[in-house]
Amino acid sequence: MAEGDVSELLNWFRTSGGSLDASVGFTVFPGSGRGAVALTDISEGHVLFTIPRSLLLSTETSALPGRIGIERWRAAQMHTGWVGLILCMMWETSQGPGSSWSKYLESLPAMFDTPMFWSDLELEELKGTSVVGKLGKADAERDFTEKLMPLLQSRPDLFPPETIPAYYTLSIYHVMGSRILSRSFDVEKDEPEGAEEDGAAGEDGAEEEGEGPANTSLESAMDVDGEAASAHGGDYESDDDEDEPSGVSMVPLADMLNAQYGSENAKLFYEKGDLRMVSTKAIKAGEQIWNTYGDLPNAELLRRYGHVDLLPLPTGALGNPGDVVEIPADLAVPPDADSDATKARIDWWLEQGGDDVVVLESDLEIPPALAALIRLLRLSPAEWEKAVAKDKVPKPALDAEVLGVVRAVLQRRREAYPTSLAEDLVRLADADGLPLNARHALIVRVGEKRILEGALERVVGLLAAAGDGDGKRKRKGRGEDDAGRAGTTKTRRRG
Ligand SMILES: C[S@@+](CC[C@H](N)C(=O)[O-])C[C@H]1O[C@@H](n2cnc3c(N)ncnc32)[C@H](O)[C@@H]1O
């Protein structure tokens, strides 16, 4: 199916019980592929299309888990993470026209601009950004080898060996995983919680009784609520610890909406029998119909979707207002800290609901969590015991001592990038000639570094105001200006 030709897909959609309002069309937008467009003026709260639940592709709707047997399915760990859905998508594809989803599967992209598919040289361009540690390629390959392949080999009746090279390779596994990462939704099996009791409509104007917003899948999606929007981290293959929490599903047509920071004008809502894409604002004829991917930072957009947002920022520059810089908690550890004691404090911090990554946003505010963590890591043994006894993390007060450490932490974070912001800005001025991946990486780096440099400037200003602009502030404790990574101390990632 050619990229812009959605007629076969729409035929399948309609003949399978879906309905598409006459106000909605699909077209190809330069640089962002297919997307939906308003063919007429659309009012807020209008149902744009309705998708019967039977059209969703998930481990619930595919016949494969039943054919394998649920006990065997679970024993093979197909019910955790996305490996089961990936296998269903592979198997449905292998069924050709025999699959209920063949027209849908044919319409999905097989190539992605996401870093999962970049060369090592290209990945170098992302060094220092939060993308690299989250790719999860090794975990994906482990799932493929240790979970999927043994199951395939044990059921030649369902997976004839001669079909393996065409449908069940590692590279196809990555393609299916990337399709899920960039297009899936979490669809609750029944009505959303609370919908019945309070007749809750969707957040944004859909007033029909019993509706609720369909969440993003754990790692992705086109339509999110606040909770899911903050679900950073992890990777699509290695979500091994938990059972699949709800129905991660491929949702035909809903996954053809593009997104752009702050532009959402439609959202997916679900009911018992179907899902509905509903306008959340009035949309003028000719305008794009945007879903939201959660107004993610460019690092996450690139990792999950393979694109970045470039919009005018309040500073006049172009960038993504949702950009952030992630600061690993390890950077706040005093250089001379005892590693066992530090580990105990960080473990306690995590137990108290802290995270092992502190997020700096574009408002350049010093995150209270960073101040609290810095203070926690510098408590005397007696103070530490008291904090534990009282079950209270230190208050996030930003005194000169803490600010000095914040400055050192930010400087250390800056060292993770091989190039400076100034160097990157020179390259950015001439970025049109760069290959797409290098350009995307550059935009991610610049977005992060602008925040980092802005925050550093702010901290230096605050220190100066506190009478310590030259770094010779008075300190209560040991030297802290060079806070660094504690060599042997590891923190763990939550969730
Ligand atoms: C859910 S799909 C949307 C439909 C997709 N454009 C298609 O052709 O099928 C998500 C993908 O659309 C593209 N996309 C969405 N929004 C975009 C944007 N603002 N700029 C560039 N590409 C975008 C990215 O390739 C992303 O992985």
UniProtKB/TrEMBL annotation:
Residues 22-294 form the SET domain. Keywords: Methyltransferase, S-adenosyl-L-methionine, Transferase. The keyword Isomerase does not apply. SUPFAM superfamilies: RuBisCo LSMT C-terminal, substrate-binding domain, SET domain. Residues 188-211, 236-245 have a biased composition (Acidic residues). GO terms for biological process: methylation. GO terms for cellular component: nucleus. One of its GO terms (molecular function) is protein-lysine N-methyltransferase activity. It comes from the Eukaryota. Residues 186-249, 467-495 are annotated as: Disordered. InterPro entries: Rubisco_LSMT_subst-bd, Rubisco_LSMT_subst-bd_sf, SET_dom, SET_dom_sf, SETD3_SETD6_MTase, SETD6_SET. This is SET domain-containing protein. The lineage of its organism: Eukaryota, Fungi, Dikarya, Basidiomycota, Agaricomycotina.
